Amino acid sequence: MSATSEAEGGHFDALDDAKINKFQLKIMFVSGMGFFTDAYDLFVIGIVVALLKTQWSLSTGQVSWINSATLLASAVGAIAFGRVADILGRKRIYGYEVLILAFGAIASAFAPNYTFLLIARVILGIGIGGDYPVSATIMSEYSGKQTRGRMVGLVFAMQGAGLIVGPLVASLLLGSGVSNNLTWRILLGLGAIPGLAVFYLRRQIHETPRFAMAGGAADEAQAAISHATGTSDAAPKSAEESKAKHPQTALEGFVVLAKSRRMLLWLIGTAGAWALLDFCYYGNTISTPEILKLLNPHASLLHNTLVQLGIFAVFAVPGYIVAILLLDKTGRKSIQILGFGMMGLMFLLIGIIPSVTTVAVQFILLYGISYFFTEFGPNTTTFIYPAEIFPVEVRTTGHGISAGAGKMGAFAGAFLFPVMLASSLGIRGAEIISGVVALAGLVLTLALLPEPKGKTLEQLSAEAYAPPELKLEAATLWHTASSLESTARRTAAPRCAGHWPRRRRIPARSRRCSPGRCRSCRSPVPSTGTSWRRHPRTSWSRPSARSCLRRACRCGRWSQRATPPSPWSRRRRTPTCWCSASGGGRRSPGCCWARSARAQRPPPPALSSW
Questions:
Q1: In terms of CATH, what superfamily is 3-231+250-461?
Q2: Cα distance between residue 317 and residue 163, in whole Å
Q3: N or C terminus: which one in the chain shows less Cβ crowding within 10 Å?
């Protein structure tokens, strides 16, 4: 698959312009159940560990491994499922990851000892990690360009529901008088219900139109678009597997990401920002019961659970809501920068000001504000970014790598936070480290990530595949026109028959120029040819009067005739190309094609032609 696999953006105009409808809301609900389970488990594992610490006499190292084993396994699941989804398709594997998730949750509930529980948590983590790239990409590829951030954000915002349901269930069980042994088993077992509830619905979702179109199943893609936009009452046959085929090897997607400098930088940006965020977020969230216990050693577990519920309800959930409302208005990058900045500031204030860790109100206020800007910030945007900016053939691969890096950061945070809290660093030292990590995420976002707001997935793919010398603003035009220009450039590419200047050597990057464009319709039109000759009194080459010819356009009009140069000046230190290959008579240094190894193949259009 090449860069032109998504070039025909016209196929997806109806989908890109579609508003939020029932079909998209169904996709959002079905996709979000995995993240509900992720957030639910993220909270309840802290309660479970607090109960098991005395029941099983767990050491600090064992507590760290129970907290973090699921996250480490999630990294493996995200990378593996992300790559498989780019090879076999989104639909072919969608739904099976929640079965793995449910099996791990049920096995955790029946764990007889520490080792069995640890293995069950690893299985649960593989299912949770596998859900990240597939669910995000399916929602992204079914959404319109003006509502894509909101819809993918709604999928991830199901975490907010899990953060509320988890403490509610835990509070009810802890206050009902149920034994501790039964309480933690019920808490872990309930995590299997959301995944099992949506398994059938996930299997009924049709293959995404963009993957089907790129894989050669055009009829299937058009049927899916018609169903998604509501222009067809007949649903596609969901029982049949997609006919789209992407002949790729297991390593090919990783090679594509590594060979493209722009995509590699984007991948470093998405993966690095996600890892830095999750170090702070998961480390603090999973260890919140321990943090609250250090603040108030005499408080009961039920009291600390209700305090954590209040923090989530007052600060975290509104953060999700504000993010969903503003993602498609202010953009992903600005929200992520603001979120990282405010997170770093709050964590540093907690660590630097001594009274914050002694006065509960001050701590809860700053801690809660950090949660608000985590949700209205990188916790949402890091999930959306890789589902948008990577091309279709490596979209779930890029998202899987980014999510895997995030889970590795979460593993480090969840593993190290109990150790830091138990050491001389305490709460203040742990929060200072979190603040520095958050500010590093801000710098990474500023340096490496683009702004995908308001662009179609095809335009973002064009930017990913554009030559490095093209600016991103022109990359979309280049990619859209590439299919129209390919035939013309092969049959009538400009050629120069003159000689290179003797006294100066033109760098290779200056030897390229492009066919011109019609001034009426802006369509690319080929040059009709050029002829060159040596000036008798200088070493510079210049075109003859016959070299500037018109170009024909399919709209029936002529582009501007290139103007011959002014009288030749010996003071000019750079030879000037006035041939029709230089873009409608615009000056460009040197003869673009003379004695060039690239003269036998069509070059990409230069920025001057746009």
A1: MFS general substrate transporter like domains (1.20.1250.20)
A2: 9
A3: C
CA distance 262 to 254: 14
Q: Is 558 helix (H, G, I), strand (E, B) or coil?
A: strand
- Strand 541-543 and strand 532-534: the pairing is antiparallel
Residue of 442, 438, 542, 454 whose CA lies nearest to 500: 542
C-alpha separations of 555 from 520, 532, 563, 580 in Å: 8, 30, 22, 19
Q: What is the DSSP letter of 215?
A: T
Question: Cα–Cα distance between 593 and 285 in angstroms, integer?
Answer: 61
Question: How many angstroms separate the CA atoms of 303 and 297, rounded?
Answer: 11
For tokens 């072919």, name the residue: 92
Q: What is the pTM of this model?
A: 0.71
Q: What are the φ and ψ backbone dihedral angles of 534, each rounded to 5 degrees?
A: -80, 135
H-run or E-run covering 189: helix 180-189
CATH 1.20.1250.20 domain extents, the chain: 3-231+250-461
Span of 222-236, 252-266, 593-607 with lowest mean pLDDT = 593-607
Reading the block at residue 490, the tokens are: 């092969």
pLDDT digit string (tens) for 576-599?
Answer: 343 434 344 433 344 443 334 444
